[in-house]
Amino acid sequence: MSETPAAAPRSRRWMLYAPLGLAAAGGAGFWAMLRGLQTGEYDPRGVPSALLGRAAPDFDLPELEGAGLPALSAADLRGPLPAPVLVNFWASWCVPCIVEHPQLMRLAREGVRILGINYKDRAADGAAFLQRHGNPFAKLGRDEPGRVAIDWGLYGVPETYLIDRQGLIRWRYAGPITPDTLDRDLRPLLRRYA
Amino acid sequence: MPSLSLQPPRCRFPKALRPLAGGVPGRAGPSPLHRAAIILAFLLVAAPALAAVGRPEDRLRDPALESRAQEIGRELRCMVCQNQSIEDSDADLARDLRRIVRERVAAGDDNAAVMRFIHDRYGDFVLLRPPFTPVTALLWAMPLIALGGGLAAILLRRRRPGASGIEPAPLTEAERRRLAELERGNGA
């Protein structure tokens, strides 16, 4: 009986702390997740676009009657382009689109070319929306059936795509572009692909 | 931030469960009647899942083609109601996708071609059964990893005798004498 009773448990004392360590690590991970949710960096429902690195799908949309803007087709997104452009899907019935609109207006004033696609909307409502909140779009197509949107892999409005000068899709953002998103994500991207 | 819209997503949600799941205030647990109600609610909620959601006029007239379309639709995730297939979801987008699936099936595409059409646009996430790729390898291997980890833990414990870590204390002189007495059979 050389081994004292207390010796064995001491050698395995780490097992006592292992659950504590695991809980601490889990807690830290959870905290980081919640913080990401708060700042908008982490979106558990967010899905990467299947179109990244590809050219925009082919489409030819009619104009939105009453908006007084030229219609939009895929030809407007084919490279080479003088600068990156944004494609924004929106609708007058979409509340987050109202939240996002001032940011689009700001970008348009700064000279960023924004091409709009009005999604599943009544023409009169869409035109009235632009009248009321201002028009940031250089061109505007109307996708009333929502079929072009599906070719883009759209799953809600608003959604915004960045097309680089070669005409390739580089970024997709599902949800309203907030001032934070604008400064944190979009502006650096616009600079990178300028 | 998730994509929100005023247009209701119309995800199928077991609304009937909500008042029941909360329990009755001031009571410790669900009463038998309450419990029966919950089970009934589950059954009622499950029932419509057996029927296709789509409007009758959207369905294909050829039952063979329609059943193929449903088979494909059940493999595709509704991107709005993310835990439902497009066959089960009432979301607008799911309805559009159901229509597209039926159009492609009616046009003579085989199942793989229709799936590819949707996969091209929405990526891996739209497939309810994700493909095996380097990115999803960990996902698919997880059951094996968990099983292997469990087995390893069991084997490690087996190999060490006295795994509880506590050796019984040696007998004292008095105990040893008492034991010897008992063994001789004149205890008590």
Automatic annotation (TrEMBL), chain A:
Its main location: other. One of its GO terms (biological process) is cytochrome complex assembly. The chain crosses the membrane at residues 14-34. Residues 50-191 form the Thioredoxin domain. Gene3D superfamilies: Glutaredoxin. It is found in: Cell envelope. One of its GO terms (molecular function) is antioxidant activity. SUPFAM superfamilies: Thioredoxin-like (SSF52833). GO terms for cellular component: outer membrane-bounded periplasmic space. CDD domains: TlpA_like_DsbE. This is DsbE family thiol:disulfide interchange protein. The lineage of its organism: Bacteria, Pseudomonadati, Pseudomonadota, Alphaproteobacteria, Acetobacterales.
UniProtKB/TrEMBL annotation, chain B:
Residues 41-182 form the CcmH/CycL/Ccl2/NrfF N-terminal domain. One of its GO terms (molecular function) is metal ion binding. It holds the Pfam family CcmH. Keywords: Heme, Iron, Membrane, Metal-binding, Signal, Transmembrane, Transmembrane helix. The chain crosses the membrane at residues 137-156. Possible subunit of a heme lyase. Belongs to the CcmH/CycL/Ccl2/NrfF family. This is Cytochrome c-type biogenesis protein. It comes from Neoroseomonas eburnea.
